[in-house]
Amino acid sequence: MYTRIEHRSFVMRGFLAGLIVVAYSANAFAEPRISIKNPLKLKGASLAAERIPLGEPDDYKPCIALLPSGELLVTAFHQHKKPGGKIMEQNLLWRSTDGGKTWSGPEKLNLLGREPYLTALKDGTLFLTGHLLPQDIRNQQGYTHGYLHRSTDAGKTWTSLRIPSEKIKPGASNHTTRNVLEMEDGSLLLGVDYDGGGGPYFMWRSTDRGKTWDRRQTCQPLDFKSRYGFFGGETWLWATRAGGILALVRVDSNELPILNQPTSGKDDQDDHFILYHSADRGKTFRRRRDLGDYGEMYMSLLRLQRPKLLLTLTVRKRNPPLGVQAILGEEQNGDIRFDFQHDRILLDSKTGARYQGGGFGPTVQLADGTLVTSYSYRGHDDKTHVEIVRWRLPSE
């Protein structure tokens, strides 16, 4: 059984507790335009942009979500070194009520698990996934394990579920999918699995907006063999209009190399993504194709207001400038298509050729069509920095 934890408060960082501070203004931090790499269909070589820095040096891997009210939320985390090789990783939350032009916070969230990733449902219910490392001073289990945090009041209070390995695969690291998938019928799906090879793999399902979960349904990923998890490989789920489910899965490139493009990856920065598809609501997943190139990660999809898709991804190795990029594509007959060779929108290129700076970089679209993307980059000081970029696509 999982552990249920309730959190009823937060602490502000950097100012008096409870004080809301409008910390950043887009007009005060205007930055150069967004470049377009290898333009073919997109007109022009660049796009206008507004960039807003958040937080302090070494804040890392932000994720953005849009609530039905129009409020924007951004999460990130900051690692604090502790004696004896231990760490404490603090989750942070910023808020914006003007489309990302100004932000309050950060709030220190009393939630366990690094790399916080947000999902906002249509009714405003929020989920935050993450995983807690063994060296974190708050880890009482001694192994890496995931968490699913839930809020029904825009992130002011949270309840938490710990993902267990006990009685399932004792001592094995476990993970969830990055996001919670909301299906057309209102049910929710969350992938859960265990490292070490062979799973087990589960597709949790909820019919009450995440209050409770049926954890019995097993999942079989076909054409997949790894010492890591299928969902724990930072998998991102997406529902097609045709009723299927796509899984964008990060894999070890030595175990599952790109077809006809072998590699000898030296570390996990050489990982890449593979597209899997399920036609039975997550009971099985079949491999469709490789998605992108080596060193490209943290992929997410957005249906735009016009009949197009936007893929946001992070280039972490091999093809500088490193950073968060976006590509326009289409959905056709339950499949997605993107031209990875042309029209790459370089939302963030500040890392340049330095060692990776993180990323995540999901994108949301406001009611007026403005796109807002979060990212982290590595600066000349060799520290990571969090920013938001507001931008628009060119007209047709």
What key phrases describe this protein's structure?
396 residues; mainly beta; Neuraminidase; six-stranded antiparallel sheet; 31 strands; 46% strand; disordered N terminus
Notes on the protein architecture:
The chain is mainly beta. It has a domain at 163-291: Neuraminidase (6 Propeller). It is built from no helices and 31 strands. The protein has strands at residues 4-7, 10-12, 22-25, 34-37, 46-47, 49-54, 59-66, 72-82, 86-96, 102-109, 114-120, 126-132, 145-151, 158-162, 174-176, 181-182, 188-194, 201-206, 220-221, 236-239, 245-251, 272-278, 284-291, 296-303, 309-315, 323-332, 335-338, 344-346, 363-365, 371-378, 384-391. The strands form seven sheets. Strands 2, 3, 7, 8, 9 and 10 form a six-stranded antiparallel beta sheet that branches. The chain has a five-stranded antiparallel beta sheet with strand order 1-14-13-12-11, with no helix packed on it. It has a five-stranded mixed beta sheet with strand order 19-23-22-21-20, with no helix packed on it. Strand 30 (371-378) and strand 31 form a beta hairpin. It is globular. The relative contact order is 0.14. Residues 1-31 have low confidence and may be disordered.
